[in-house]
């Protein structure tokens, strides 16, 4: 059903992230979406990206910097008709850097089956 949050929809979005398919990912987002990234310069949120164009640019740059970036051990929960949670382990090796594996989650908000907000968190072990 169109506009309904399902595990299959969340898997489809996550598959786009693992394929590095920026256009495919953004096809699930509303035009004026928001992505609150896991880190960034501005307290308390870190970095907040607004709109599909900015999010697409950030994702494209990230996939160039971390060409093997992938999400594994993915689990999803549907909270209600407008919210969901995804838990995963993100792995990759940045160009010229060390491999990483971080446990993280996304807090998703939807309207009409499209993402309005993605709020990302992950644990960095030092």
UniProtKB/TrEMBL annotation:
* UniProt KW keywords: Isomerase
List, for all copies, the residue spans of the domain called SnoaL-like.
15-116
Top-rank lineage group of the source organism: Bacteria
SUPFAM superfamilies, per this entry? Answer: NTF2-like
Q: Which InterPro entries match?
A: NTF2-like_dom_sf, SnoaL-like
Q: Mind listing the GO molecular function terms for this protein? A: isomerase activity
**Which Gene3D superfamilies would you find in this protein's record?**
3.10.450.50
Q: What name does UniProt use for this protein? A: Ketosteroid isomerase-related protein
Which source organism does the UniProt entry give? Thalassobaculum litoreum DSM 18839
């Amino acid at each position: 059903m169109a506009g309904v949050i399902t595990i299959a929809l969340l898997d489809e979005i996550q598959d786009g992230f693992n394929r590095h398919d920026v256009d495919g990912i953004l096809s699930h987002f509303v035009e004026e979406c928001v992505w609150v990234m896991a880190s960034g310069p501005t307290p308390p949120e870190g970095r907040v990206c607004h709109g599909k164009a900015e999010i697409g640019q950030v994702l494209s740059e990230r996939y160039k910097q971390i060409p093997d970036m992938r999400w594994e051990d993915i689990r999803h929960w549907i909270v209600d008709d407008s919210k969901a949670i995804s838990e995963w382990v993100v792995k990759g090796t940045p160009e010229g850097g060390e491999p990483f594996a971080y446990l993280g989650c996304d807090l998703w908000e939807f309207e009409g089956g499209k993402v309005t907000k993605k709020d990302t968190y992950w644990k960095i072990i030092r």
